[in-house]
Write a structure and sequence with these properties.
Radius of gyration: 26 Å
Order of helices and strands: HHHH
Shape: rod-shaped
Helix content: over 70%
Oligomer: single chain
Largest sheet: none
């Protein structure tokens, strides 16, 4: 009688192993790809932020307010693991002044995001 239980347990274990193994591998691959994608996006955002901050800030006479786009870039560098969305003020600044041609690959990265 005990041998029958062991045989049934072995059969169930084999079936479960054959079914669960691809599922576990698939979930592990999905998690790995997601983390890799997040790292790549963080690297692109950091490149954009560095490109923005590498230019000398321009202030008009009487206006010493920091550029909202530069504030966004600093936020990206302060929290590189997070995706920091552009606030409306920074988006308006980007629409008005665009990005410098010194970093044309950054313009491409912005279009990809």
């Amino acid at each position: 009688m005990a041998k029958d239980w062991w045989d049934k347990g072995l059969i169930i274990g084999e079936v479960a192993g054959k079914v669960l193994t691809p599922i576990v591998i698939g979930v592990a691959a999905l998690i790995f790809n997601s983390q890799t994608s997040q790292r790549e996006q963080a690297a692109r955002m950091t490149q954009i932020a560095v490109g923005i901050l590498s230019e000398k800030p321009e202030y008009s006479p009487g206006n010493t307010q920091p550029d909202p786009l530069r504030n966004w870039a600093i936020s990206v560098l302060q929290r590189p693991d997070e995706t920091i969305p552009l606030d409306e003020e920074a988006a308006d600044a980007l629409r008005k002044q665009g990005l410098s041609l010194v970093f044309p690959e950054l313009t491409l990265c912005l279009h990809l995001i």
